[in-house]
Write a structure and sequence with these properties.
- The protein is mainly alpha-helical.
- The relative contact order is 0.16.
- The model has no long low-confidence stretch (mean pLDDT about 85).
Amino acid sequence: GIRDRSPSRGLGDVYKRQAGYGLPIFRARTYQRVLYANAAATGLGVIEADPHSAAASEIQAILKELEEFSA
């Protein structure tokens, strides 16, 4: 729901500054989600806690980009 997802603010400035270093910027993003806190409180990652959740999809997208970057 809306209360579970809020985008980070100020990302435009971060992107501009990072682009100046010539480093890649991942397309995948994470959002503030209740599941991140709940999973951490139980000692689990979000993929373990709820593999079909939006949070798990976000982490999987980041992992995929990281693998592509490191290949």
